[in-house]
Structure formats: C-alpha cells, structure tokens
Design brief:
Elements: H1 2-25, E1 28-34, E2 45-48, H2 60-76, E3 80-81, E4 88-96, E5 107-117, E6 122-131, E7 136-137, H3 144-153
Parallel strand pairs: 2-3, 2-4
Antiparallel strand pairs: 1-6, 4-5, 5-6, 5-7
C-alpha cells in the first residue's frame, strides 16, 4: 500500500512539473511573414550573410549554434548551402538579456531569421521567435534553442 501511494505522489509531482514547464517554458511566440509576390519554388541554395558582430552584445557561439541547427533543418527540406550565387541569403538577428545570470546561462529574448533575395537585395521571408515570459535558454544542455529554430523554420518555405 505504501508503494502505490508513493507512486501516485511521484506521478502527481511529475505532472505538476511538466505542466509548469509547459506554462512557463513554452511561452515562445513564433511569427513569420513573407512577400506574397515571391515564388519560393525553385529556390534551393542559400548562404549566410556576414555576422552582425560589432552591434552591441554579440555571442559568436549562439550564432554558430543557430547556423548549425538551421543548416541541418534546411538540409532536411532539400536546401543546399553554397559559397557562391545562392538563391537565398540568410541573416540572423537576436536580442539578449544583458550579461549572464547567476547560473551563467545566456538568454535570448528575440531570435530572427531573415531570408533575402540576393539578386535584388530584398527581404522575402522573416521568421521571429520572442519569449512572452522569461527567455530562450541557449545552454546546449537544454532543447530551447533547437526547438525555437525548428519552430521558426517549420514555416519556411511558405506553402
């Protein structure tokens, strides 16, 4: 009888923790917009725009991780990263909390991926993730960053 009661308490605790994480940790808002006059059919290659380093607090590790995650997801969608003459030029923008918190977890409040037509130098698609409560944890031991990049790119290319 004691084991059954303990098992129910453990289950109740696990459910409570999961719901709390869903409510507090799952509050990232994903938005996207695109040029409805652009045909995304036939766009299959991309390159990354140069880093925006030098504008405020920059985190080269964060930028590298977002690019690696994006490269994997775009590859799964049939896109190829190239050095010259890409169909798309991708730029990355983010806003972070100032400094590090007491646990040294770098936090991001906003992450934006922009897709440009390099021939016309025009923005044709934008995906944005912003935290409504708290911040996106970029620590490699958490899935926040990967989940956010997946959520942004789940809307690309538009259908």
């Amino acid at each position: 009888m004691m084991t059954v009661c303990k098992g129910k308490k453990d289950l109740a605790l696990a459910v409570a923790v999961s719901l709390s994480l869903l409510i507090l940790g799952g509050c990232t808002s994903i938005k996207y917009s695109y040029d409805t006059g652009t045909s995304f059919v036939g766009l299959k290659t991309y390159a990354w725009a140069p880093s925006s380093a030098g504008y405020g607090d920059q985190d080269p590790l964060l930028e590298t991780n977002v690019r690696v995650l994006s490269d994997q997801l775009l590859g799964q969608k049939g896109f190829t990263k190239v050095q010259e003459k890409p169909d798309l030029l991708i730029s990355l923008h983010y806003e972070s909390d100032t400094g590090y918190n007491s646990q040294h977890d770098y936090k991001v409040r906003l992450l934006v991926l922009n897709m440009h037509n390099p021939a016309k130098n025009e923005l044709i698609w934008r995906g944005t993730a912003s935290s409504r409560i708290g911040s996106i944890n970029t620590d490699a031991s958490f899935g926040d960053l990967k989940g956010v990049v997946q959520d942004i790119l789940s809307h690309f290319p538009p259908k």
